[in-house]
Design brief:
The protein is of the alpha/beta class and about 300 residues long. The chain has one domain: Rossmann fold. The strands form 2 sheets. A 7-stranded parallel beta sheet has the order 3-2-1-4-6-7-9, sandwiched between helices. Strand 2, helix 4 and strand 3 form a beta-alpha-beta unit. The relative contact order is 0.14.
Length: about 300
């Protein structure tokens, strides 16, 4: 077993440098750091790119939405730094690998990798389709795995540490009955991130799970709704609620940079995300009973 692991392609790519066995040093200064963000064409991805740009980082921007991504790149450049737009479908291993080859043709390794691309979906389990299960898991979970698999070997081999940010969700520790597919994908990201953090500590690479709550981004309007969730004006009601809630992706971006600076393991973002995080641990039974009630803005 040990010999098989030693001979694996991923392990061989990491074999250039024998890293120190120590806890990662938090990354306090982002000036001239190489940062790649997936899902950068809008929402949390765009605002995090702008926050890193303001802090002096150099940005690599990956998305399937070329028009939106070009606009993000322009906004990043307006901050006085570099912004390289990259077309990438994170669900496709070949696409991610090609992107990594392009990036590594210019730089040795990333300093910060943010696996942020994701999709939303809602619908009770009996209404969900296997096609939607596969699509959501391919993007939300395997997109994170593909990003780590493509970029971490170079970060490890360089031997200078770094940081990985995986966008999970408050749905990564609290699963409402209307989001079994989405919650499963985010629980998986949360578990993967926890394991990866323990693994990468020996390489001085920090790993953080970002868990936003109700954030006003385009994800809800673009979400796949199944069963009763697709009926009438339910989706527009959710979109309106998110708008009225008005917790912005720019606020999430600031929380992300702070989490990296302090090498935080799990970072809930927004009051409800924090409330669910605490309640899940202190009163899981009560939270479970409350989850059976329909959300008031859907009635």
């Amino acid at each position: 077993m040990d010999n098989e692991l030693a001979q694996s392609p991923l392990r061989r790519r990491c074999h250039v440098h024998q890293p120190p066995n120590e806890e990662p040093m938090p990354m306090k200064d982002f000036r001239d750091k190489e940062v790649l963000i997936t899902g950068s064409a809008s929402g949390i991805g765009r605002e995090t790119a702008l926050a890193f740009a303001e802090a002096g980082a150099r940005l690599w921007l990956a998305d399937v939405d070329e028009t939106g991504n070009q606009e993000t790149a322009r906004l990043v450049r307006d901050k006085g730094t570099t912004g390289h737009p990259l077309h990438c479908n994170v669900a496709d291993e070949t696409s991610v690998r090609a992107m990594a080859e392009e990036v590594h043709g210019e730089i040795e390794a990333l300093d910060v990798l943010m696996n942020n691309a994701g999709v939303g979906t809602a619908g009770r389990f009996l209404d969900t389709t296997l096609e939607n299960w596969r699509r959501t898991l391919d993007i939300n979970l395997m997109g994170v795995v593909h990003g780590c698999h493509a970029f971490l070997p170079n970060m490890v081999a360089r031997g200078e540490g770094g940081h990985v940010i995986n966008t999970a969700s408050a749905a990564g520790y609290y699963a409402a009955p209307d989001i079994p597919v989405y919650a499963a994908s985010k629980f998986a990201v949360q578990g993967f991130t926890e394991a990866l953090r323990a693994d990468m500590a020996q390489h001085s690479i920090g790993v953080t799970a970002i868990c936003p709550g109700i954030i006003d981004t385009p994800i809800v309007a673009k979400s796949v709704m199944e069963g009763k969730m697709s009926e009438g004006d339910r989706q527009s009601k959710i979109v309106d609620f998110y708008h009225k809630r008005n917790y912005t992706p720019a606020q999430v971006a600031q929380a992300i940079l702070k989490a990296v600076r302090h090498n935080v393991a799990v970072q809930p973002v927004s009051p409800e995300a924090w409330g669910l995080y605490v309640a899940k641990r202190l009163t899981p039974g009560v939270l479970g009973r409350l989850s059976r009630s329909e959300l008031p803005f859907l009635k």
